[in-house]
Amino acid sequence: MPKMLVSVVRQTFMNPAADLELRQIRHAIDGVDDAIATLLASRRKLSRLAMLTKARQGIPPFDGGRESEIEGRYERTAHGASIVARAIFRWCRGNRDER
């Protein structure tokens, strides 16, 4: 079904109160997404600073134990979220997985 038609069909069956509620929920989701993007940019910057500091000290750039600890924290917070931690690690490395 074409995207525009699906949108029209959805709007036809949604009452005004439900439509308003959905718009409010989506607005809240957008705010969470914006905050996540800001936090990810900060995390990437800090990760790169940590890698530079380790490089100056001759320490390997990646610490599997530390990453496992972080994955565990994600998992304890939200079941299945450790996959998000692994994706963040790859993104912070610039998509280089050098473990």
Topology diagram in text:
Blueprint: H1 3-13, H2 16-57, H3 64-77, H4 82-92
Structure description:
This protein has helices at residues 3-13, 16-57, 64-77, 82-92. It folds into two domains: 1-59; 62-99, no CATH class. The protein is 79% helix and 0% strand. Helix 3 crosses helix 4 (82-92). It has 99 residues and is mainly alpha-helical.
Molecular shape: elongated
* Number of strand elements: 0
Radius of gyration, in angstroms, nearest whole number: 20 Å
Low-pLDDT stretches: none
Largest sheet: none
The residue-averaged pLDDT reads 87
How large is the share of residues in beta strands? Answer: under 5%
**Alpha-carbon distance between the termini?**
45 Å
Helices and strands, in order, run as HHHH
Percent of residues in helices comes to over 70%
User: How many independent structural domains?
Assistant: 2
Structural class: mainly alpha
- Please count the helical segments: 4
